[in-house]
Each structure stands twice: as structure tokens, then as C-alpha cells.
Amino acid sequence: MRRGVQEQAEAVEPAYRPTRADILAGIRVRERLRRLVLLRWAFVALFAALAVQSVVLSGWTSSVPVAVLCAIMIWSIPHLQAHHVLRTVGWQGEYRTTVSGAGVAAETEHTQLLQRWSLFRGYRETPEHLVLLSRDPNILVLEVLPKRGAAGPVDVDRLWAILDGHLTRV
Length: 170
Description:
By secondary structure, the protein is an alpha+beta fold. The protein has helices at residues 3-10, 20-34, 36-58, 64-75, 77-89, 153-166, and strands at 15-16, 95-100, 103-107, 112-115, 120-125, 129-134, 142-146, 168-169. The strands form two sheets. It has a four-stranded antiparallel β-sheet. Helix 2 packs across helix 5 (77-89) and helix 3 (36-58) packs antiparallel against helix 4. The longest helix is centred in the first third of the chain and has 23 residues, at 36-58. It is elongated and about 65 Å long. The two termini are 33 Å apart. The model is unreliable at 1-9 (pLDDT under 50). This is YcxB family protein.
């Protein structure tokens, strides 16, 4: 069988409409790999401690709302990012993705994008998603493949096989 025909036969074609949960799952995977979760929670704890300190030591209660607001804003950064990304890509409608030996191709009514395997360092699985992570140090490119987009469990297994053939689990 010719290479192009073989790759097409082995391709998996999930179709899905991106949701906030999909994007948030990708952001959370990236944060765990970069250890930003620990940093974010350290800042939340710092602002919470400053709020307590301002009340206990100085009796100043007016700074408590500001410290609590800062802690909440720091905690909510991934949610705000997911909301912004969804506003950027959500209007494009359904994504028809093809995962094959050539890479990951995504197509909507308005765009076409082919990402070759060399772009990615690896992938991580969550209960509902497969998240592909770029090679750059800050992991700026994420490709989130929701498992619900696959035609069934057999397609998810084929998707794993293709990913395992080209990437490592990180």
C-alpha cells in the first residue's frame, strides 16, 4: 500500500465543538507540567496571609477585601485564560480534526491548520481529553483533543496508537 493511502487508512477523525472545559483541561495540563499550580497557590496563600495579618496586627479591616480580591484573581487566572481562548476560537464552529502519520490537521469553515509531529514534545491524557504539548519551553501551543469527538472507543484506541507511535506520554 502506498504511504499516503496507508496514512489515510490509519487516520482518526474526531469532530467536536470546543468548550470552555476542553480549553481549561489543556491549560491545567500545561500548568502542572510547568509547576505553575504551586506558584499560583503560593501567591494565593501570601495574599490570604496578608489579609489575616492586616486584621490581627494592625486592626485594619479595609485591606482585607483588596487582599481577598487579589487572591481570587490569582486563583482564577486559568479560568480567565480559558474564557479568552474560547472567545477566540469558539465562533469558528465545529472542528474536524484528522490525526494521522503526517500530524494533526484541524479544519473549520474558516481555517485549515496542519501541525506536524515535530512541533510537539509529547502528550498527556486526562479522563476526557488528550492534550498535545509543544516543544517550546513555555508550552505556548496546545492541541486539545476531546475524546467525545471520536466516533467510539475503538477510535480512541486508534488515536492512542497513533500518538504513541509519534510522541511520548509526559
